[in-house]
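Blackboard transcription, Thursday session:
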Amino acid sequence: MNPASHLLISWTVANTADIPRRDRALVTLSGVIPDMDGVGIIAELLTENTSMPLIWYSKYHHVLGHNLGLGLILVAVVFSLSIRRWVSAALALIAFHLHLLGDLVGSRGPDGYQWPIPYFFPFSTDWTLTWVGQWELNAWPNILVTLLILGITLYLAWKRGHSPLEMISLKADTALVAGLRRRFGEPIAV
Ligand SMILES: [Zn+2]
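(Written on the board underneath:)
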């Protein structure tokens, strides 16, 4: 799935519990960080027509960041940095796995490549995960998921008074919430 969907899905997971801003950011990052193993694409594109092409993207994307080993590291990091440790660590584990699930169902490349996930890496490399029904990265189910999750994100922003924007700018976050509440009215406190 695309990084925006991963971000919004993880954000929604972070909002299933009442945890502070820092914890929400940590949980959200846990569902986004796996794709950091894709930064090799820069080196790959830059060297593609040279005599020494670096195939870091082809080789490491969906390998280094998409496995249980990294998942456990993320959980440990979230546990040590968050305020509501247990809840946040559990949500981070869920967000991380939803990322893998999202990729498993909807990340087939335009060339048909399935980007198998070596789930037990680095403990075992014996088998990798793929799903025969996997759809393409830009296929309609992904677009539908993105729109749906965007709707949920905006609803949560309206209702709870914070959006993913709080991770980059509180000012932008406040403006978005105010805009939504002007448009749809104030949420009724429960
Ligand atoms: Zn991914």
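Lecturer's comment: The chain has one domain: 3-136.
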